[in-house]
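Example (one chain per record):
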Amino acid sequence: MSFEVVHTSVVRGLRGESGFATAIVTRGLPAGLESGLQDVSGYDHDETRAIGVDTVEWAHRIVTVRGRPYTVLSRIAPNGVDASRRPNRIAHHLVLEPHDRAAGGPAWMLGQHRAFETGTPAVEERSAQPSLPKGSLTARPARAWEAAGFDAGWAGVLAQTILDAPQSTIYVVLPEPLEVLPLVIDVMALLPEDRRWHVTFSTRPLVTLPQVRCQLRFVRANAPGLARLLADPSARTLHVEHDLGAGEGRAAEAARRGEVVEPTVRAPNLKVHPVIDLSTSAASPSPAKVPEIQTPQQSIHAPSPPVPPQPVFAGALLAAKENTSTRTAHQVPAVAYSSPSESTATSWPVLAVFLIGYSVVAIFGALVLFILAASGR
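Predicted structure:
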């Protein structure tokens, strides 16, 4: 079954503690998961310090607890002040079993779920699993991006980056605070249905934890500390501006027309049941390498006209930074090793010559000493 956990500041929590504590939990929640979800329940109320672009954090994460990964949908938002007059927040998490993942994808489910707690709830343990939306999401033009003042083509550029780099962290830098969930839903609509649940995201990222996977992170331009995050050599970055078009590439045009975006590099199929296994692609042989969208420290400007077959994205600061630990065969220095038998065959003659020479010298020395001793008498 699926579960839910609500974490906020209360006078007395479900476990008897005060302050930030578990207020609601579904009975039978796997051991250790309650604590694991507390780790991703934080919220930074200081807008001068926060890097997220949305007031509400909408997130889909893979949280690993005691070696098992869990699909977690989250809504984290301000919740007035608590009993001590401190800023409060409320985090509502949904832990989904594979059969409860809607075909529409995680962002669609977050937008459709109407039972998120938005105020301090009554503390309780619930016996029934949460009621979850079911449904699908067909490809459509990226109208939410247009409504936000952006070129709809950026949704296609982002969708293709997700497909081509499933293991990379992707930072989407937006110029000002806005509601991001509709933008994410537009991007999900452009992805093949079997790829949507592999995309993890946060509209207001706070902390990076080793046991939590969050691939797509929406951040605010000029946010404090942002430059340090974007300097990560393994990450990709997409800067989106109101007056900057996404070009005429195939992905951008697909987003404007409402068509599914196809990956430039065909990644191997990843299993979704019973849990998302992201190790499959890492262990599988890589397909033939194609030119990256952008190499480190380079910007790609608007092409006119586009050059087939590889789309070039206008103005995209897509930092396709190579992982320095990955090298092709011709980059690995060749080292010659001798086998044990070869090493033994080489060393025995040398040792024999040394022993014979040493024996001759010893015998000769002993003979000289004997003669000297005899003549002394």
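Caption: The chain has nine helices and eleven strands.
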